[in-house]
């Protein structure tokens, strides 16, 4: 059996950015249902920080990263939808994309259209597929809907904002600074709210003439959850899909009745990528919108693979907007 040695980021314990180590890894042959991918670009996401800090537990030692794009170098037994030489991209578990190459399950990997670069592929899969399921499945946004989307200038937010405009929605977005408000406006956000300075509930009520919105998309978590419920119209849906400020505290479900028969959901991309039919439908939608130019993926920062800890630190410190990639 032939082996190859590659560089990868590993973590042997949870903690701050300093726990990420740049090490040598031995790769053998891909097993049944597996492929070996050589990465050309790797996506960096807030989700990675949750794994690093231990908010989402995983066995140690562990790889890091959920997203990448590259070329198939080897194909294991039983893999029929991919071949050696295919350009591919993926998002989803198991962690391990922060590497020059890796062996991974083939069933979450998609062929990357020639019209999309490796860098764009690596930067768009996790955030783009997240936006796709949020706006088309978790809640099916209709033309004329007004929605509230927290952190609209972030990676998922900037993609979702363009997508919402393409669907004919009115977008209310929260941001943390005037600079991020300008980014949101540039991506089509109709109403920006500086949530640190303004009462976002009062502003949403003002914008909607007191009615509230049918859906709130919230990746902030603890700091925004309860006030987000007050932005919903009766029978509205609260979508909590991230915990940037910390996990949402336990919820007394009676509050949902008192506030107007509200609904709450906590979707995750993992559910969608593990269902091949949903994955292929979502990816086809995403690819088509990116190729047509309806959604532009902006890569604002590139870091060499060995600087992964700095990339995560800058993201956690909110110094980045749009998408960040690592270059192996």
From TrEMBL:
Entry keyword set: NADP, Oxidoreductase
Any Pfam family the entry gives: ADH_N
Family annotation (InterPro entries): ADH-like_C, ADH-like_N, ER, GroES-like_sf, NAD(P)-bd_dom_sf, QOR-like
Domain Enoyl reductase (ER): 15-326
Gene Ontology terms for molecular function: mRNA 3'-UTR AU-rich region binding; NADPH binding; quinone reductase (NADPH) activity
Alphabetical list of CDD domains matching this protein: QOR2
Gene Ontology CC terms: cytosol
NCBIfam families xref list: PRK10754.1
Protein's name according to its UniProt entry: NADPH2:quinone reductase
Provenance organism: Polynucleobacter kasalickyi
């Amino acid at each position: 059996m032939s082996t190859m040695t590659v560089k990868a980021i590993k973590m042997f314990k949870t903690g701050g950015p300093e726990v990420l180590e740049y090490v040598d890894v031995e790769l053998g042959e891909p097993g049944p249902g597996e492929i070996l991918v050589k990465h050309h670009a790797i996506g960096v996401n807030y989700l990675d920080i949750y794994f690093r800090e231990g908010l989402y537990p995983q066995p140690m030692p562990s790889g890091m990263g959920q997203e990448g794009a590259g070329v198939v170098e080897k194909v294991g037994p039983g893999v029929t939808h991919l071949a050696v030489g295919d350009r591919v991209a993926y998002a989803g578990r198991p962690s391990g994309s922060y590497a020059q190459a890796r062996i991974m399950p083939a069933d979450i990997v998609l062929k990357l259209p020639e019209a999309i670069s490796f860098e764009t592929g690596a930067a768009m899969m996790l955030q783009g597929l997240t936006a796709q399921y949020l706006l088309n499945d978790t809640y099916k946004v209709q033309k004329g809907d007004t929605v509230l989307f927290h952190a609209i200038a972030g990676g998922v937010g900037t993609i979702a904002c363009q997508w919402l405009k393409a669907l004919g929605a009115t977008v209310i977005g929260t941001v943390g600074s005037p600079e991020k408000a300008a980014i949101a406006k540039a991506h089509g956000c109709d109403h920006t709210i500086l949530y640190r300075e303004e009462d976002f509930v009062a502003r949403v009520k003002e914008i909607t003439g007191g009615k509230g919105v049918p859906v709130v998309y919230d990746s902030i978590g603890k700091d925004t959850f309860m006030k987000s419920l007050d932005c919903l119209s009766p029978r509205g849906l609260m979508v909590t899909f991230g915990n940037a400020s910390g996990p949402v505290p336990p919820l007394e479900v009676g509050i949902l009745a008192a506030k107007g028969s509200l609904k709450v959901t906590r979707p995750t991309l993992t559910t969608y990528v593990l269902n091949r039919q949903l994955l292929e439908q979502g990816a086809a939608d995403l690819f088509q919108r990116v190729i047509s130019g309806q959604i532009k993926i902006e890569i604002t920062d590139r870091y060499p693979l060995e600087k992964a800890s700095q990339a995560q630190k800058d993201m956690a410190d909110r110094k980045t907007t749009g998408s960040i990639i690592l270059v192996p």
